[in-house]
Amino acid sequence: MFYRPEDGHGLPHDPFGAIVAPRPIGWISTRDGAGRDNLAPYSFFNAVAYEPPQVMFASTSTKPDRDGTKDSVANIRDTGVFCVNIVEEAATNAMNATSAPAPCGEDEFALAGIGRTPCETIACSRVADAPAALECRLTRILRLPGAANLVVFGAVTGIHLREDCLIEGRFDVTRFRPLARLGYRDYAVVGEIFELQRP
């Protein structure tokens, strides 16, 4: 099968998300200018550089109570900071609860019963029990083609690692089984890894 995206795929569901998979989930915590916390998951998320460490996430939809974007991006525009919390298998239901289109200003930490704790280098909350969290300062927001496609880039200013995930000096993902997004409504967890030496 071959199709051009502008012509449509003719399938019952769009296969694009299933092709580019699995994708890590960035559970983005932000704070608005009034000091209200927000927490939302984004599966268009990844690390993009080592030195200095940098990450990105993309927002691809809007909310009626935000001007052309969602709460996370609007808050980052206002404050210039955000935190990426890594999602473990045990937090699947809590993460999913925070994907609801809650009204602007509603606290998803409270909505989903998620513990929070302050970040160290930025004025923002993070998920208290997350296996890892990346505190970030905004470097740029890029608008991509499409009505609501925005990509947020941030420089990592602080990194939290949960102690039980550090095994013999390595961050061991099998200790928490990261949640990943597939296509459609499908998810996966990482439970088995192997090492491969580059030539």
TrEMBL record:
UniProt xrefs under InterPro entries: Flavin_Rdtase-like_dom, Split_barrel_FMN-bd
Pfam families given in the database record: Flavin_Reduct
Name used for this protein in its record: Flavin reductase family protein
Native organism: Rhodovulum sulfidophilum
Domain Flavin reductase like, first and last residues per copy: 18-173
